């Protein structure tokens, strides 16, 4: 039985499995530049974050209708439930859809069709986090927040993702201030490929409550001390780090040292359809490859609930 856990770093578009991509492509009359699912899977060899993002954005072309987003989310929730996930805080990238002429309402209402019944159908409670694409402009982020205003009852927080280097958190100060004024929680990707300074900026300038990835924080001892002292959760994604070549092999992952240092680490899947594993696959991989004890594994699971945006009066386990 997999440990009960919360998943806090999961891009719903990154759960698009090749089989579903081809089914939706056929249904929507979208031409894919791969002959079949096997050819597509062959393309899952990435050099870095950007080479992954190119494919990630390309495949999104198959997502067009509410039903598409519903089926995508429903398939993820079924897989997550089987891996012990009891609560999922799910990222989505509206700018990538708006740019293709798919409306905000189509994305959110479609996802909500699956999320709204997920406790009943999958035993998984959910929250939605809307991400700004950091390689788009600050004005575009503000316009996206504006477009989301009719759906604020569906959205718990905002995040920041896409190509990191050259797009520091400071660029999105205004958008994050505006999100906070709307009562939204704040997280941001930082220190995945970007320097520790981006983690500091996300904390100081964007007011984030969690850092997504935060891997490169380990290069700055003063930052590590601060993250430990303030119990700032890091949503690590070990299999993602290997696939995007942030680290050479899983055996090199600093997770054991990070836990030893007292950092509040969580383990998540990021884009599981692309990186070879869902939530518990990541748990199992780090346990086996890094030799983490049962106590450490339970700490990771406990951290995932503590670091979640579940309120005290919400059930930790859906059933
Ligand atoms: N969007 C989807 N996955 C991402 C990742 N690992 N880093 C940044 N942006 C992303
Ligand atoms: Zn991510």
Automatic annotation (TrEMBL):
<feature type="binding site">
    <location>
        <position position="270"/>
    </location>
    <ligand>
        <name>Zn(2+)</name>
    </ligand>
</feature>
<feature type="binding site">
    <location>
        <position position="271"/>
    </location>
    <ligand>
        <name>substrate</name>
    </ligand>
</feature>
<feature type="binding site">
    <location>
        <position position="189"/>
    </location>
    <ligand>
        <name>Zn(2+)</name>
    </ligand>
</feature>
<feature type="active site" description="Proton donor">
    <location>
        <position position="192"/>
    </location>
</feature>
<dbReference type="GO" id="GO:0000034">
    <property type="term" value="F:adenine deaminase activity"/>
</dbReference>
<keyword id="KW-0378">Hydrolase</keyword>
<dbReference type="GO" id="GO:0005829">
    <property type="term" value="C:cytosol"/>
</dbReference>
<dbReference type="GO" id="GO:0008270">
    <property type="term" value="F:zinc ion binding"/>
</dbReference>
<dbReference type="GO" id="GO:0006146">
    <property type="term" value="P:adenine catabolic process"/>
</dbReference>
<feature type="site" description="Important for catalytic activity">
    <location>
        <position position="213"/>
    </location>
</feature>
<dbReference type="InterPro" id="IPR001365">
    <property type="entry name" value="A_deaminase_dom"/>
</dbReference>
<keyword id="KW-0546">Nucleotide metabolism</keyword>
<feature type="domain" description="Adenosine deaminase">
    <location>
        <begin position="4"/>
        <end position="317"/>
    </location>
</feature>
<dbReference type="InterPro" id="IPR032466">
    <property type="entry name" value="Metal_Hydrolase"/>
</dbReference>
<dbReference type="GO" id="GO:0043103">
    <property type="term" value="P:hypoxanthine salvage"/>
</dbReference>
<comment type="similarity">
    <text>Belongs to the metallo-dependent hydrolases superfamily. Adenosine and AMP deaminases family. Adenine deaminase type 2 subfamily.</text>
</comment>
<dbReference type="InterPro" id="IPR006330">
    <property type="entry name" value="Ado/ade_deaminase"/>
</dbReference>
<feature type="binding site">
    <location>
        <position position="11"/>
    </location>
    <ligand>
        <name>Zn(2+)</name>
    </ligand>
</feature>
<keyword id="KW-0479">Metal-binding</keyword>
<keyword id="KW-0862">Zinc</keyword>
<comment type="function">
    <text>Catalyzes the hydrolytic deamination of adenine to hypoxanthine. Plays an important role in the purine salvage pathway and in nitrogen catabolism.</text>
</comment>
<dbReference type="InterPro" id="IPR028892">
    <property type="entry name" value="ADE"/>
</dbReference>
<dbReference type="GO" id="GO:0009117">
    <property type="term" value="P:nucleotide metabolic process"/>
</dbReference>
<protein>
    <recommendedName>
        <fullName>Adenine deaminase</fullName>
        <ecNumber>3.5.4.2</ecNumber>
    </recommendedName>
</protein>
<feature type="binding site">
    <location>
        <position position="9"/>
    </location>
    <ligand>
        <name>Zn(2+)</name>
    </ligand>
</feature>
<dbReference type="Pfam" id="PF00962">
    <property type="entry name" value="A_deaminase"/>
</dbReference>
């Amino acid at each position: 039985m997999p440990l009960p856990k919360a998943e806090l770093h999961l891009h719903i578009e990154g759960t698009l499995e090749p089989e579903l991509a081809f089914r939706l492509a056929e249904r929507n009359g979208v031409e894919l530049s791969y002959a079949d699912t096997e050819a597509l899977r062959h393309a899952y060899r990435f050099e870095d974050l950007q080479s992954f993002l190119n494919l990630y954005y390309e495949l999104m072309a198959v997502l067009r209708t509410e039903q598409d987003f519903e089926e995508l989310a429903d398939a993820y929730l079924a897989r997550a439930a089987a891996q012990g996930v009891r609560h999922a805080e799910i990222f989505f990238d509206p700018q990538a859809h708006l740019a293709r002429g798919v409306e905000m309402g189509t994305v959110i209402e479609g996802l909500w069709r699956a999320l709204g019944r997920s406790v009943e159908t999958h035993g998984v409670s959910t929250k939605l986090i809307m991400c700004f694409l950091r390689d788009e402009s600050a004005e575009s982020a503000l316009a996206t927040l504006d477009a989301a205003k009719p759906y604020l009852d569906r959205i718990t927080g905002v995040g920041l993702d896409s190509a990191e280097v050259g797009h520091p958190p400071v660029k999105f100060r205004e958008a994050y201030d505006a999100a906070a004024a709307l009562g939204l929680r704040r997280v941001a990707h930082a220190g995945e490929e970007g320097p520790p300074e981006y983690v500091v900026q996300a904390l100081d300038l964007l007011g984030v409550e969690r850092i997504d990835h935060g891997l490169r924080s380990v290069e700055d001892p003063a930052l590590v001390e601060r993250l430990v002292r303030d119990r700032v959760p890091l949503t690590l994604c070990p299999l993602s780090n290997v696939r995007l070549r942030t680290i050479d092999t899983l055996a090199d992952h600093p997770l054991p040292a990070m836990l030893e240092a007292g950092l509040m680490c969580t383990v998540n899947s990021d884009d599981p359809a692309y990186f070879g594993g869902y939530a518990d696959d990541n748990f199992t991989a780090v346990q086996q490859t890094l030799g983490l004890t049962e106590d450490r594994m339970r700490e990771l699971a406990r951290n995932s609930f503590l670091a979640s945006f579940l309120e005290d009066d919400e059930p930790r386990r859906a059933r």
